[in-house]
């Protein structure tokens, strides 16, 4: 698919799958990084790990401590608050539990170092953290959407809830919850591997040529070749329980509602809360995280997020929400200008020749079907009912009517399936260490 982005010179670029928008290599945007660069005269770049809207992330060797780390190089226009927020969260005494592993603090990354680099596009904050394998979304894509083993899914979902609960307890909204921000931790230390051994194990850096529309000249501060991210050989259908430890990632959108207002949510459209569209002038807060948490939990247990569809857009996502959750609140319904393309004024579906996006349809097709076909454990009736009972209050249309993360922690699904699944992981981990 051809997509374009723009730079200050009115140059448009062809999109490259899995790579940041090259048009963001402009004033305020990404900092150009190459393999072999030494950042802060200490961190030698070995490979690329990935990117986000406001950063690129690199695998680097800390030449002082001889260890592999992840270096996140933020865009020049990023808020710069991520390091501060992570430091506050990691040092907080408000854990709500005697054990940081059970409190959720253990799923928050530790910042090992911070520094700034200066380049042609501005000044960029850099965060150094432990090296992780890949995101859960990456692993799912590499396995063609195959689902996790249920024991693994329960453990990951429980950790995800604990991490969000820990943030909320300390007054922070994450602001960008989705499976692409769930990182799988490394089981083994890779520090002993040389660069050559690392490349032999996980592939050498690969490059894709950067191309412009109309063959316009590439500006001098834009890389002439894009570096493709390292492909860790991790598949969701092959992930074992002992490999299911996670870190919550990307705190660039995080904030304290008591200290600042946010009016927009930048999560992918299929898991974006409906108030982002229908109440754009109302400040976001903890309930927005609750909505995206619910969508993500479904995406962990199933093959995709609850409202995800092919080539999603705001209208398509809203129509799925109405089919699953019922008609929008009257004032939101009136603001949805294209509703007549999908529904009658009574909320009845116009196109009755296709399947309906019901809870049962989504559950069967995204949670059960592929597991059943592969002889994997499927979700039992009691667990399904408990899952529905937990998720539906999280997906109340009005933010004020949604449950809190404390309610999620106390739900039957968390207490009887989620937390026992995580505790089983910890016992397995303890056994391996012994």
TrEMBL record:
Its EC number is 2.7.11.1. It catalyses: L-threonyl-[protein] + ATP = O-phospho-L-threonyl-[protein] + ADP + H(+); L-seryl-[protein] + ATP = O-phospho-L-seryl-[protein] + ADP + H(+). It is an enzyme of class 2 (transferase). ATP binds at residue 72. One of its GO terms (biological process) is spliceosomal complex assembly. Signal peptide: none annotated. GO terms for molecular function: ATP binding; protein serine/threonine kinase activity. It holds the Pfam family Pkinase. Residues 43-414 form the Protein kinase domain. It comes from the Eukaryota. Coiled coil: none annotated. Keywords: ATP-binding, Kinase, Nucleotide-binding, Serine/threonine-protein kinase, Transferase. This is non-specific serine/threonine protein kinase. It comes from Metarhizium acridum (strain CQMa 102).
């Amino acid at each position: 698919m051809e997509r374009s982005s723009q730079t200050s010179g009115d140059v448009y670029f062809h999109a490259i799958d899995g790579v940041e928008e090259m048009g963001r290599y402009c004033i305020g945007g990404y900092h150009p990084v190459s393999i072999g660069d030494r950042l802060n005269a200490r961190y030698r770049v070995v490979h690329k790990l990935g990117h986000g809207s406001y950063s690129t992330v690199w695998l680097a060797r800390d030449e002082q401590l001889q260890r592999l780390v992840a270096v996140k190089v933020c865009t020049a226009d990023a808020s710069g608050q991520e390091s501060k927020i992570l430091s506050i969260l990691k040092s907080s005494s408000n854990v709500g539990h005697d054990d940081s592993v059970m409190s959720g603090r253990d799923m928050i990354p530790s910042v090992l170092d911070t520094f700034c680099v200066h380049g042609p596009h501005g000044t960029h904050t850099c965060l150094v953290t432990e090296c992780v394998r890949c995101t859960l979304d990456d692993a799912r894509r590499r396995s063609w959407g195959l689902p996790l083993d249920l024991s693994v899914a329960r453990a990951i979902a429980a950790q995800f809830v604990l991490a969000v609960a820990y943030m909320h307890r300390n007054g922070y909204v994450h602001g960008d919850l989705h499976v692409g921000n769930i990182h799988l931790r490394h089981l083994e230390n890779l520090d002993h591997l040389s660069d050559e051994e690392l490349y032999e194990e996980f592939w050498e850096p690969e490059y894709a040529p950067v191309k412009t529309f109309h063959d316009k000249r590439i500006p001098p501060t834009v890389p002439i070749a894009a570096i493709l991210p390292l492909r860790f050989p991790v598949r969701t259908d092959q992930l074992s329980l002992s490999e299911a430890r996670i870190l919550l990632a990307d705190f660039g959108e995080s904030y304290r509602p008591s200290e600042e207002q946010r009016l927009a949510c930048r999560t992918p459209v299929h898991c974006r809360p409906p108030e982002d569209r229908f109440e754009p002038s109302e400040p976001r807060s903890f309930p927005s995280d609750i909505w995206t948490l619910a969508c993500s939990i479904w995406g962990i247990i199933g093959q995709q997020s609850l409202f995800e569809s092919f080539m999603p857009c705001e209208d398509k996502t809203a129509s799925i929400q109405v089919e699953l959750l019922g008609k929008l609140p009257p004032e939101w319904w009136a603001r949805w200008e294209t509703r007549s393309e999908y529904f009658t004024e009574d909320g009845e579906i116009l196109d009755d020749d296709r399947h309906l996006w019901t809870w049962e349809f989504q559950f069967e097709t995204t949670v059960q079907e592929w597991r059943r076909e592969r002889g994997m454990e499927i979700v039992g009736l009691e667990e399904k009912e408990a899952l529905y009972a937990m998720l539906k209050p999280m997906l109340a249309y009005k933010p004020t009517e949604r449950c809190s993360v404390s309610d999620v922690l106390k739900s039957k699904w968390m207490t009887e399936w989620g937390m026992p699944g995580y505790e089983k992981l910890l016992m397995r981990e303890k056994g391996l260490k012994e």
